[in-house]
Amino acid sequence: MTALFEQYPSLHGRMPHIPLGCFPTPVQRCRRLGGRLGVDRLFIKRDDVSGTPYGGNKIRKLEFLLGEAVEQEKTAVLTYGGAGSNHALATAVYARQTGTKCIALLVHQLNARSVGRNLLMHLHLGTDLRFCRSFSSMRRKTLAENIRRRLVHGSTPYIIPMGGTSPLGAAGYVGAGLELAKQVDEGLLPEPDVAYLPLGTMGSAVGLALGFEAAGLRTRVAAVRVVDGSLANWRNAARLFDETNAYIAALDGSFGRYEPTAGRLTIVDDFFGGMYGRYTPEGAAAVRMMAETEGLRLEGTYTGKALAALVSHAGAGLLEGETVLFWNTYNSRDFSGEIDGLDYRRLPKAFHRYFETDVQPLDRGADSGEATV
Ligand SMILES: *Cc1c(COP(=O)(O)O)cnc(C)c1O
Question: How does the average pLDDT of the chain come out, rounded?
Fold first, then answer.
């Protein structure tokens, strides 16, 4: 059960929710990586194993979002992302578990091996994939699909926003913050001074900051921006924090009201590399370092950049004497068994390019030291 309902039992039944993941996710000490970085107390939060067959950060949000889709008796969900979107894939995986059709509208992104793997998994799942040339074409296709499904199936699809981020989706990460506080209470790790994670649509980092606040933890959130600053910025983060807080507090008056502060949530801007999905040298090095020291596979779009920030801050002496948590948001469940031997040519033609052109150079061999933990 999500820690949000454990601590605020009256929310159970008032918020839409279906259990999909396995919580709490483990926390582990990273002695080898910590040794390499000179961070004695370095821990990892294993949201990479948050569910089977597919882990990562999106399940916590989808428990609420798909819960609402089921509550509204929707037969289809529609969502958005880049061609290799982990969010679109997680949505497809768990929509299927709830008996709901998934339609994914995807825009182009730079090629990487994870893009091809995710697309093949969609093929395996039977996701209705549509390639979109632009964000305005996403909007047009959404309207057209609303009309079509109402006519043909009698109801519009449940719309899940990009990255699963809304006050309802972010509530999943408020629960994650409370879950960590409980693990600290149980003595599984000392109270972290800071937690590093990527900042995309912001639901994870903002929800976590609110969860830490509500739990009375002192842990700062270092949110490493991996998308354009016009999307992820302090103003939008503060608004999402407020809206999520207001939404939960309206349902349970014992949940406090908090102010978003820069001391609680810091946006780290220097590791983005100028474009979503573009691997950076520091990010690729961080991916390799994690594979070599802890045997865990990261990737260059999100988690490599978040770890690169941690590595750089450690090198600059900013984490001296601190307890540091790396929150792993990337799925580590192996689904190669499901996609081995699948023919990409059965995907819509617009997606063939991710199999017929090379991946970006920094992605070649970046996680070749990979093993499983
Ligand atoms: C989606 C995603 C993120 C970003 O989470 P947001 O809540 O959108 O900020 C981080 N890491 C990975 C691996 C993701 O797939």
Answer: 96
- CA dist 126 → 10, 100, 223, 329, 346 (Å): 37, 11, 34, 25, 11
Q: Is 103 in the pocket of ligand 1 (CB under 6 A)?
A: no
Q: pLDDT tens, 113-154?
A: 999 999 999 999 999 999 999 999 999 999 999 999 999 999
Q: Can you tell me which atom of ligand 1 is nearest the CA of 58? A: 1
List strands edge to edge, sheet with 220-225. 27-29, 41-45, 323-327, 194-199, 220-225, 265-268
pTM confidence score: 0.97
DSSP 15: B
Mean pLDDT of the region 64-90: 98
Q: Is 85 in the pocket of ligand 1 (CB under 6 A)?
A: no
Tally of CB atoms within 10 A around 68: 19
Whether 114 lines ligand 1, by a CB cut-off of 6 Å, is no
- Quote the CA–CA distance of 272 and 284 in Å, as a whole number: 12
